[in-house]
Design goal:
Blueprint lengths: L4 E12 L2 E12 L3 E5 L6 H8 L7 E6 L2 E3 L4 H7 L1 E4 L11 H5 L15 H14 L15 H14 L4 E5 L7 H16 L3 E5 L3 H7 L2 E6 L2 E7 L5 H9 L18 E10 L3 E9 L3 E6 L5 H8 L7 E6 L2 E2 L6 H6 L2 E4 L3 H5 L6 H6 L16 H14 L17 H14 L4 E5 L7 H16 L3 E5 L3 H7 L2 E6 L2 E7 L5 H8 L2 H4 L1
Parallel strand pairs: 3-8, 3-9, 6-7, 7-8, 13-18, 13-19, 16-17, 17-18
Antiparallel strand pairs: 1-2, 1-4, 4-5, 9-10, 11-12, 11-14, 14-15, 19-20
Helix pairs in contact: 4-5, 5-6, 13-14
Length: 506
């Protein structure tokens, strides 16, 4: 029997500017097995995987890959050794074809000639696409693919490199239920071929569904490890946060009213949304559920003025919003929008925490005739909002946002909007990629906002999240609202049935 591990970590430690991030990490993973690596944002998962992937060097400790000492100096070394890293933000060139993305570093040539052998390129690509179950032409541009298809292309690229260890970082955050099932089926086939997988996710039900083994990191240390069967979800959460969470969702102190804040009537954009009507009331948390492609994010963008609508009417506090009004005008009316794409649309990653918090409300602190910033009032506002969103005290206002964990990045975005004192806040997947501890804090901030009289429109793919927070849930399917459920009628089955396309009911 072969007992050689696919990967073994021994005493891995790493510090940045004298601050320990990893403290003596030791565990191993067998070939053909999947290990769930979980922990709160900032626990050290990314740093450890960056060491495995050759992006960072450890301060102490070592690794053994397939029975051989492994010391990658850069990602190229890791790729040559058979280690592939599939990031949450997929590293594909949207304007290139699938084939070109798969073999960009090793395009086949026509003998000694400098020209690309397109036939060989497409034949090799077709073989790999067949292995991942993707029936798409190799010359298809990546920009034409769905999120699930792009995920499969990334895995095909790992197979092209003959990877024997694949790291997947939050692979299902942008996938539909069906795409997730397709991905899991493929991952199980890779397990059967002897490929080892490290699966990083905050969706603990997926970890328990797919993985053989579990490692929990907290504050840079391994605090739990073993076969997945030894841990139920509460035990995993307790290990992650260092305490027992008796509730996953905060208690709601206030109650919604019948006072309308945001009213939408017959909103229509051809092939996007059709005849959308609803009202967000003062103090209400209104959820929107739907499967991928239902039109939820597109609706949010229209409401905030980022995209246009052909027909229909939107009112704020009973005043009609002109369809030509853009985001700035809608912000002045009291509307705010937290986008699902925080890295590209919600944050200036290279800017500081303070600058990101200032993005929306800087004008409010520049009231002098010369429009100069009143730094005293601005700094006071920054301090107040940092405390309100419980941003960790370990980071300074001058620190770059890109160095923060996903949970703290989301707190910065939420803080940015809270400084603007919105009357209606639209949240699109506000907890995507955020750990369970940080989620609870974000949930509390959302409910506090509603308790103070704001209206919240919350879009989420997670039924449990919506039923745990919302007063009412709308269900969208194929660009239409197919269900309106008050809290007394919340049911996972009812919501899923309403979300299915009409042909599924036939």
């Amino acid at each position: 029997m072969n007992t050689i591990s696919a990967i073994e970590f021994s005493g891995i430690s790493k510090s940045f500017a004298g601050v320990p991030v990893l403290r003596g990490i030791s565990f191993k993973l067998g070939a053909g097995r999947t290990l769930g690596l979980v922990g709160e944002n900032g626990a050290g998962k990314s740093t450890l995987m960056n060491i495995l992937g050759g992006n960072l060097l450890p301060d102490t400790g070592g690794m053994v890959l397939g029975g051989t000492p492994y010391t990658p100096q850069d990602p190229t070394d890791a790729a040559r050794a058979g280690v592939a890293f599939i990031h949450q933000e997929l590293n594909l060139f949207a304007n290139l074809s699938i084939a070109e993305n798969l073999f960009l570093a090793a395009l086949p040539r026509m003998g000694s000639m400098p020209w690309i052998d397109r036939r060989a390129l497409h034949d090799r690509t077709a073989t790999l696409l067949g292995q991942v179950g993707l029936a798409i032409a190799p010359e298809t541009l990546v920009e034409q693919l769905s999120a699930g298809e792009r995920q499969l292309v990334e895995i095909a690229r790992a197979l092209a490199l003959e990877a024997r260890l694949i790291i997947l970082d939050e692979p299902t955050t942008s996938l539909s239920v069906r795409e997730t099932e397709t991905l899991f089926s493929l991952l199980r086939r890779l397990q059967a071929r002897g490929i080892a997988l490290i699966y990083i996710s905050h969706l603990l039900e997926h970890v328990r569904q797919l993985c053989h083994d579990l490692v929990v990191l907290r504050d840079g240390e391994v605090v739990a490890q073993g076969p997945i069967e030894a841990y139920d979800t509460p035990a995993i959460i307790s290990a992650m946060v260092g305490r027992s969470l008796t509730r996953l969702y905060p208690e709601r102190r206030g109650a919604s009213t019948t006072v309308p804040l945001l009213e939408v009537r017959s909103l229509t954009q051809l092939h996007i949304v059709r005849d959308i009507s609803f009202t967000v009331h003062r103090g209400e948390v209104l959820g929107i559920f739907g499967l991928m492609g239902a039109g939820r994010s597109e609706l949010a963008r229209i409401l905030f003025g980022l995209d246009s609508a052909q027909y229909g009417e939107v009112r704020m506090r009973e005043k009609v919003i002109n369809r030509r009004e853009g985001p700035r005008e809608r912000m002045e009316r009291g509307l705010a929008f937290l986008t699902e794409d925080r890295r590209h649309e919600g944050l200036c990653l290279e800017a500081s925490i303070a600058d990101n918090l200032a993005l929306v409300s800087l004008r409010e602190h520049a009231r002098t005739p010369l429009r100069l910033l009143d730094r005293n009032t601005w700094q006071q506002a920054i301090s107040t909002i940092r405390a309100a969103v419980r941003l960790t005290a370990k980071v300074s206002d001058a620190q770059s946002v890109q160095t923060l964990s996903g949970g703290n990045q989301q707190k910065v975005i939420l803080g940015k909007w809270l400084l603007a004192k919105p009357e209606v806040l639209i949240l699109d997947e506000p907890t995507r990629g955020v750990d369970v501890g940080a989620r609870f804090e974000l949930y509390q901030l959302i409910l506090d906002l509603a308790d103070r009289g704001a209206g919240v429109l919350m879009i989420s793919s997670e039924i449990e999240e919506l039923t745990g927070l919302c007063d009412r849930i709308l269900v969208m399917s194929q660009g239409e609202i197919r269900g309106n459920f008050p809290r007394t009628e919340f049911s996972r089955e009812r919501l899923l049935v309403a979300a299915l396309p009409r042909e599924a009911h036939a």
